[in-house]
From TrEMBL:
Modified residues (N6-(pyridoxal phosphate)lysine): K234
Amino acids binding pyridoxal 5'-phosphate: G94, A95, F121, D205, E206, V207, Q208, T263
Protein name: Acetylornithine aminotransferase
Domain of life per record: Bacteria
GO biological process, one term: L-arginine biosynthetic process
Source organism: Enterococcus asini ATCC 700915
Biological pathway: Amino-acid biosynthesis; L-arginine biosynthesis; N(2)-acetyl-L-ornithine from L-glutamate: step 4/4
Cellular localisation: Cytoplasm
Gene: argD
Family: Belongs to the class-III pyridoxal-phosphate-dependent aminotransferase family. ArgD subfamily.
Keywords: Amino-acid biosynthesis, Aminotransferase, Arginine biosynthesis, Cytoplasm, Pyridoxal phosphate, Transferase
Cofactor: pyridoxal 5'-phosphate
Amino acid sequence: MTYLFPNYARKPFEIVTGLGLTVTDNQGKEYLDFTSGIGVVNLGHHHPAVEQALAEQARQLWHMPNLYENHLQEEVAQALVGELGYVGFFCNSGAEANEAAIKLVRKARGKSKIVTFQHSFHGRTYGAMSATGQASIHAGFAPLVPDFHYGVYNDFDSLALVDEEVAGVMVEVIQGEGGVIVAEEAWLQALARRCQEVGALLVIDEVQTGMGRTGSLFAFQQFGIEPDIFTLAKGLGNGFPVGAMFGKGELAASFGPGSHGSTFGGNKLAMAVALAVVKTMQAPDFFPQVAQVSQQLAKGLQELRAPKLCEVRGRGLMWGLEFSDQEELLRVMAAAEAKGLLTLRAGEKVLRLLPALTITPAEVTQGLSILADVL
Ligand SMILES: Cc1ncc(COP(=O)(O)O)c(C=O)c1O
């Protein structure tokens, strides 16, 4: 008997505690968590600075609406974008951040046409779902929000879709849910140029790739492009629900008072947590350490050999292992879980690994050895 909708295919056990990358289920079994709660707990479970920020704010004030000044929102936005020339809007999830971006694009450009890409994932609300280029996610929910057009990712011919009618283009730098598909730098740069030529706004969905996941605070920083708008969620709150949309300062006038909003967005608790997350990532040795463990993981994964393992791809601490068939993917996931390694699936037949950025070299070795065993 369950009181819940069966919309999630849940595992028959519950994780009840976590520390760093180690989580424990309700039977007392320990696992090495290479999922970070689907790319959320980027600083690991039970992170002391984040926990302390939440506890302190919880004792002071939980919530006041966006009718009043909020210095924490200002501080988080400043910490995230510094002098890059963006202004921010806070919400509660990735889908909401993308909804805000879609609305801003249409309002700023006064046009409706938006180009996104096949195999993309932008969220489950109507706008974000309509932006998502996957028929299986649309199934049964017609009519979708109109005027979304889906190009082929990494395909130069698809750039022709971006014409003078287009208000904006929304794209992931690495398609996460779609199968850990990394954009080709030259293609992404050509897409950015094409947007500039026709006056379309370039929106980078950094919900999964952002907050250090690929080895820099935002993934777009590694691809030589500068979006007009980008969105964040997942790792921004390390498990506390929060999302954000940033847009170039010149777009500010398009989101004037009353144009968009959220009751909870930028809530004091969420902002206190987000500030602690960003500050932790800004410590001088943080990203150099991420680079070290990323290299170790990348090398180890690329050395894995198995008859049905076709490709290993990714950046930073976001990796996909593509198998020749789904049966093998599911076998590998189940066997890894039995041996105490939690992994994720992406696309049809890709094993996705999103360990916390705080993973130690010993944990990288442990995860690799379980994978090698299982393969
Ligand atoms: C790239 C991307 N965009 C948007 C979303 C939606 O985020 P949320 O589930 O917080 O609404 C996700 C979630 O997986 C994502 O990976």
